[in-house]
Input
Amino acid sequence: MNGYQHLYIPGPTNVPEPVRRAMNVPMQDMRAPDFGDFVTGILTDMKKAFRIENGRVFIFPSSGTGAWESAIQNTLNPGDKVLMSRFGQFSLLWVDMAERLGLKVELCDVEWGKGVPLEDYAKHLEADINHEIKAVFATQNETATGVTSDIAGVRKVLDAASHPALLFVDGVSSIASIEFEMEKWGVDLAVAGSQKGFMLPGGLGFLGVSDKALEANKAIGNAGMARCYFSFEDMIKLNDTGYFPYTPATQLLHGLRCSLDMMLEAGMESIWTRHTRLAQGVRAAIEAWDGCQLVAMGPEWESDTVSAIYAPEGVDARDVISTAYWKYQTSLGSGLNKLAGKAFRIGHLGSLNPVMLLGAISAAEMALVDAGAKIEPGSGVAAAQAHYRATTPDGQAAQSKAA
Output
C-alpha cells in the first residue's frame, strides 16, 4: 500500500527480479546425477568474475568471513608473521581474526579515511631480508569508510622487494563491482560474498585461490592450522566431481547462476564503468551539501561502491539514518565503530541505476534537513541529476545499434 522499503546500504544489496525468480525453485537432490554439471558450470564462470584462468574459486555456505578464515587456515601456520593494515571496521576485524588464529601480525595502523599504505608496506618488505613475512593482507574496499586501496600497487611493492609472500585481498565489497584483476595483479587469495556485487542474499562466501596458494596448501599437508568445514582438501576432492562435501545452498546457487549470466553478458568492464558513473553522481550530491564531506581523504581513496559521509557539525548521523528509515522508508548505512553518530553511508553497488540512486540521495537530503542540517533542499539531487544526464548512455540508441 505504501510501496516498499528502499535499500541503499553497502550490503546486502538489491536483488534483481530475474535472480529472485531463479531462486524460486523446489528443493532438489544435491547428489543427483545432473547436479554436478550445474555446479561445474558455476565454478567455471566464477573464475571469469574473479578474472583468473588458473587456480580455483571455492563457494562456501557462509559469509565472506568464512572465506577469510578458510584462506588463513589452509595456507598459513600458527606463528607465521603476516603484514597487515588497519583503517576501518572490516580491516580491523581481519586483523582480529589473524591474531585469534595464532598469526603474528606486523601491523600498519592508518588514519581512517585512507587505505593500504604502500610506502609502509615497502619498508617492511625491504627490511624482511629473511622472508619471515609469509603473507601480505590488503583490504581493497573498506566498507566502513568508503575507501578503496591500490591492489596493483601492493603487487608492485612485493615485486620490487622480490618478496615471495602470499597476497591476500579482502574484496567483499569490491569484486564484481569495481576493477579487480586477480591473476593480472598476482593476488593469491581473494575473498568475496554473495550479498554485495553478486546481487544475492547473504549466505555464500567466495574464495579465489591461485596456483601458488594451492601449492602452499599442499606444502602444509596435514600439519598447520586445524581445519574441517573450510578445508581446501575436502572441497577440491568433491568440487572436481561437481559436488560439495556438505549440503550446499541450492537455491542460492540457482540465483548465482542467473547473476553470473547477467554479469558476464554485460561484461565485467562494463560493470566497473557503471559503478564509477553511479558513484560520481553520489559524490556530486555530497559536494553540494553544505557541511557534509566524504570520510575518504582524497580522490585517490574514494570508493565506487559505498560513500561514507560525515554529517554536518551539530548533526547526529544516527538521527539522519533513523529519520530516513522511519519517515522516508529508506535504509542508509550506519557509521561503524569510531564513526558512529558522525557518519552515515550510501551504498551504490550491485543492481542499481541513476533513478534509484536519485531516490537515495533525495531521502538522505530530506533526512539531513529534518535532523538540522543547513543545506539547500534539492541541491544534492540537482547536482546528481546533472551528472547522470551528462554521463548515462542512451540505452535505446545502444540497443538500436546492436540490432
User: Anything to note?
Assistant: The first helix runs from residue 17 to 23. The chain has a mean pLDDT of 96.
